[in-house]
Amino acid sequence: MLIVLTGIDGSGKTTAARALVESARADGRNALLLANHAARRRLSLLSERFGWTLPPRVADFIETTVRLFNVLVNHARAHKFDGLVVMDRHLPCQLALRQANGLGRGRLLPWLLGKLPAPDLSVHFDVDPRLAHQRVTARGTDNETLADLEAFRAAYRSLPEFDDFVVVDAGGSPEQVYAQLNRVIAGSEAMSIPWN
């Protein structure tokens, strides 16, 4: 079973992904966590350290290249893995970032989305950008403004792919969000999606 988690920074998707894989392993199931990052955090930290700002199209080129590489490598790994695969982020994340930054969808990312194996379940972690900003600020490893997070959330909701996402309310505690995620998975299992 392939599950993809999406959501803005501070929505808790990485925490939930780790908990899901750890729980599956504790139950004796094969489970694999794969991260499809785009190096945004590293670029942000480098920009802050050296005092320069990348033009949006340059930043997008770097982020898209890194994300594409990770997605392709991780799909190859997932194909060889027998069990639960949880992907933290995917190509819709890059499409949302492009939208939030005023860039078009382009042709490559939508084309690849149509060619790659579709996930059995795509879960979107929706959260109020103000709460997400508090979380991001508290962890101190990102440099996201409230306006960035608001634009990112709106961009996700504007994606045509959003209609295929199962949306969970990520505004609660990690335990509450994880419980919602488990209910979503249980519902998918009831619809005969196998979980090896």
UniProtKB/TrEMBL annotation:
Domain Thymidylate kinase-like: 78-179
Alphabetical keyword list: ATP-binding, Kinase, Nucleotide-binding, Transferase
Leader sequence residues: none
TM region(s), chain numbering: none
Pfam families, alphabetized: Thymidylate_kin
Cross-referenced Gene3D superfamilies: P-loop containing nucleotide triphosphate hydrolases
Family, similarity comment: Belongs to the thymidylate kinase family.
Name by which UniProt lists this protein: Thymidylate kinase
Organism: Arthrobacter bambusae
